[in-house]
Each structure stands twice: as C-alpha cells, then as structure tokens.
C-alpha cells in the first residue's frame, strides 16, 4: 500500500451522466471508492479539474483575455472542490477542500502545513484552483502538488482503462499498454493521456503515474495498493 497518493479527477468525470455541471450520485460513488483506501491507512490528496463548467482555453477571445479565461477555469475547479468535499463529508468520508488562490470567504487557503495536518487526521484533501497561475493545466498542477505533498504516485482516473496506442473510442484495433516510459509517451503524438508539461515534470522528478478507469469498481484501491491496473508510466 502506498503511504500517500495524488488522485486526479477531471471535471468531465464529475459531471457524470449530465452534459455539464455536477453529478451528486457520481460524487457519492467516488467517495465509496476512496473509503477503503483511507481505511487501509493511505492518505489521499485530490486535484480536481473544472471542464464540467468551463475551460479557460474554450472561452478565451471575443473580448475575454487569456488570463481572465484561465482565471475562470480555475474558479470552475474551485466549485468542484467545495461541492465534492461536501458530498464526501455527507457520505461519511472526512474531507477538507483547500484553494491555491485566496478565497477565504468560501474555503481555506492551501498551505503545505494545513494539507499535511488534515491528512494526518485521516481526512481527504481536495485542492481547487490548480497551481493558482494561468497557462498551466490541472494535470500539471496535479503533478506539481504530488511532488510538494510527497505523494508516492499520481493516479489519474479517466474514462478508459489505461493508455492505448491510439484512441480506443475511435479505433477498435487500439492496443493497450500495461507500462510505458515517459520518453515513449512524449515521443508518441497519438498518446494524449496528459499534457506534455505534466508528463515532462513527472519524468524529470521520476514520479510514477497510473492511468486507470474511474468507473471500474475497486480500481482506485487496487491502484493505491500498487496492483497492476490500467497503465503505469515510469521513467
């Protein structure tokens, strides 16, 4: 079992059955998947995306500046962080939301010490607003946070069961990889599992990553145990 993991959840995952917004049932299902991880003694840090509301790159232009657009995207992740934490707590999974941007009326600000204190009390920590800076995705923020929090591994929960040589939704002959090096991911333009900045940072710092299907029951706890699920990315 890993001591501490970073779980990356996209906004798309949190919209669940809907075309956008927040799916309470999906959030509660995720809480049930995380409970056995916490019960086993593994500490859980979550970085959330915000694509279920808005992505900065989508709204930039037409009078909206790039920085403003990225700020809007960060606020979308904050909505996910505070609502996800509420559902988790209501489901009996002790959780605290933190923001890398100061929004004290809504949520406590992220600091390393505050996050560690919550983890040591057995709480899940959900972080919103990415890195707090524009032009950096929540994938990059997830790797950055995993490094700062000394997480043993980054687990990116997606809608497919790992990394393929091409899009398995479009190509029936797509081949799944059990393991890939970061160099192989960076060299293959058909593999878009994470943005290149996130992959490059993980590679440079030798931080392992697991890409697995969120909706396969038990996947998160199996990944947290170090079992072979999805695709493992290594140096």
From TrEMBL:
GO annotation, biological process: 'de novo' CTP biosynthetic process; UDP biosynthetic process
Classification via PANTHER family: URIDYLATE KINASE, URIDYLATE KINASE PUMPKIN, CHLOROPLASTIC
UniProt-recorded name of the protein: Uridylate kinase
Root EC class: transferase
Keyword annotations of the record: ATP-binding, Cytoplasm, Kinase, Nucleotide-binding, Pyrimidine biosynthesis, Transferase
Coarse class of the protein's main subcellular location: cytoplasm
Catalytic activity: UMP + ATP = UDP + ADP
Residue stretches making up the Aspartate/glutamate/uridylate kinase domain: 4-213
Function text: Catalyzes the reversible phosphorylation of UMP to UDP.
Location in or out of the cell: Cytoplasm
Pathway: Pyrimidine metabolism; CTP biosynthesis via de novo pathway; UDP from UMP (UMPK route): step 1/1
Pfam family name, one: AA_kinase
Recorded name of the encoding gene: pyrH
Annotated UMP binding sites: 50, 131-138
EC numbers for this chain: 2.7.4.22
Presence of keyword Cytoplasm: yes
Assembly and oligomerization: Homohexamer.
Organism taxonomic ancestry: Bacteria, Candidatus Saccharimonadota, Candidatus Saccharimonadia, Candidatus Nanosynbacterales, Candidatus Nanosynbacteraceae
Family: Belongs to the UMP kinase family.
InterPro entries: AceGlu_kinase-like_sf (IPR036393), Asp/Glu/Uridylate_kinase (IPR001048), Uridylate_kinase (IPR011817), Uridylate_kinase_bac (IPR015963)
Residues bound to ATP: 8-11, 51, 55, 158, 164, 167
């Amino acid at each position: 079992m890993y001591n501490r993991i970073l779980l990356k959840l996209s906004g798309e995952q949190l919209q669940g059955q809907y075309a956008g917004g927040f799916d309470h049932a999906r959030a509660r299902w995720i809480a049930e998947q995380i409970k056995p991880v916490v019960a086993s003694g593994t500490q859980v840090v979550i970085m959330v995306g915000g694509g279920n509301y808005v992505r900065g790159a989508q709204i930039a232009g037409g009078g909206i500046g790039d920085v403003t657009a990225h700020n809007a995207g960060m606020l979308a992740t904050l909505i996910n962080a505070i609502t996800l934490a509420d559902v988790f707590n209501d489901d009996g999974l002790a959780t605290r939301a933190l923001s890398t941007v100061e929004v004290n009326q809504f949520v406590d600000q992220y600091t390393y010490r505050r996050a560690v204190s919550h983890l040591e009390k057995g709480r899940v920590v959900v972080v919103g607003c990415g890195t707090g800076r524009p032009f950096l995705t929540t994938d990059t923020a997830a790797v950055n946070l995993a490094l700062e929090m000394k997480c043993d591994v980054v687990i990116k929960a997606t809608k497919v069961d790992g990394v393929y040589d091409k899009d398995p939704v479009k190509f029936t002959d797509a081949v799944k990889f059990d393991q890939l090096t970061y160099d192989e991911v960076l060299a293959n333009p058909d593999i878009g599992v994470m943005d290149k900045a996130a992959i490059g940072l993980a590679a440079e710092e030798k931080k392992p990553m697991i890409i697995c299907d969120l909706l396969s029951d038990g996947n998160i706890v199996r990944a947290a145990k170090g079992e072979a699920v999805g695709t493992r990315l290594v140096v």
